[in-house]
Design the sequence.
């Protein structure tokens, strides 16, 4: 997308939203999630409630925008991805605490902030991708296995400082403590086939091209690759492995939402948040982006079902957020990206 157009659209959106911020039939959303993911949800919400949803989409900078707008901000709800990015909004002081029975019923405790600053919308697992040709089924079963010397020169990952990997590393600290987690990360680094680079899909491409045999990536990318004609061969070259099924389960991350402090349309904001946590929206969201619902009992998308069921790690995401600085420090200390 043209950045100039994006900025212009955002500025225009803020102007319009500011002028109508207190409208009884509107709610204003700042979203770091892409339009195609959330617009179907907002359309259904408006259809059911009559409340119009105004949205500003951006890849970054929305928390800073809310801070700059201050008490005049029209923002009611912030939607973003990854627990560390969500926590950044909390740390910036732009979120409001919310106690709500509907959200507490629909969203498990480990997937929402104990103080009500944020609530998960969807889940994605941090899976292991393994070459169908060069890694036998059952040969790797856990994150811990990634540090086994047998995989020396056979693993590809994106930057260790990326939020997706940082959350995984934080989960290892939660399970093993800092010392053992650091030893594990050093083992993983020693097994890398190349300097960390690219995104999650680039690692699977590298497996297809024979550069490595294992990679770490979010589960939903498997579906994304299968629907893309160019990338389908990459996905077809790997098995998706759900790690630690005999123990804590696969490490999970989230997309989430927060109520903005001083939201001018707080009542409608809460209505939207309740809607997003309930059956209809949960099913739409999961189907559009191959993610897993947070509400129990909501059916998975058919193609996601075909990948198999799994045990998910239920460590509190608030604990992962707390351990994120330690994980980042650990990445730097061992020179993971060097």
Sequence:
């Amino acid at each position: 997308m043209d950045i100039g157009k994006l900025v212009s659209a955002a500025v225009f959106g803020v102007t319009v939203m500011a002028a109508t911020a207190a409208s009884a039939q509107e709610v204003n959303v700042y979203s770091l999630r892409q339009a195609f993911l959330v617009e179907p949800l907002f359309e259904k919400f408006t259809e059911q409630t009559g409340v119009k949803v105004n949205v500003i989409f951006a890849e970054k900078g929305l928390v800073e925008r809310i801070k700059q707008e201050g008490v005049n901000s029209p923002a009611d709800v912030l939607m973003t991805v990854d627990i560390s990015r969500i926590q950044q909004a909390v740390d910036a002081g732009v979120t409001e605490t919310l106690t709500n029975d509907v959200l507490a019923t629909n969203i498990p405790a480990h997937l929402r902030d104990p103080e009500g600053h944020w609530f998960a919308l969807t889940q994605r697992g941090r899976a292991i991708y393994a070459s169908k040709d060069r890694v036998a089924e059952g040969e790797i079963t856990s994150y811990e296995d990634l540090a086994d010397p047998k995989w020396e020169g056979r693993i590809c990952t994106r930057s260790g400082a990326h939020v997706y990997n940082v959350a995984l590393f934080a989960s290892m600290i939660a399970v093993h403590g800092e010392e053992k987690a650091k030893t594990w990360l050093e083992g993983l680094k020693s097994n890398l086939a190349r300097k960390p680079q690219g995104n999650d899909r680039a690692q699977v491409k590298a497996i297809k091209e024979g550069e490595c045999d294992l990679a770490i990536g979010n589960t939903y990318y498997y579906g994304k690759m299968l629907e893309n004609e160019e990338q389908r061969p990459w996905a077809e070259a790997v098995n998706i492995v759900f790690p630690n099924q005999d123990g804590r389960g696969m490490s999970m991350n989230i997309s989430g939402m927060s109520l903005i402090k001083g939201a001018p349309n707080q009542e409608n904001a809460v209505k939207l948040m309740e809607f997003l946590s309930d059956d209809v929206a949960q099913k739409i969201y999961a189907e559009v982006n191959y993610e897993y619902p947070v509400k129990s009992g909501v059916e998975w998308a058919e193609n996601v079902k075909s990948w198999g069921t799994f045990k998910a790690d239920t460590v509190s995401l608030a604990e992962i957020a707390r351990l994120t600085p330690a994980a980042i420090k650990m990445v730097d200390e061992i020179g993971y990206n060097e």
Notes: Residues 1-16, 18-23 have pLDDT under 50 and may be disordered. The chain has 14 helices and nine strands. Strands lie at 26-31, 52-57, 77-81, 119-131, 155-156, 214-218, 238-241, 252-259, 292-293. The chain has two domains: 3-123+253-300, 125-251+313-333.
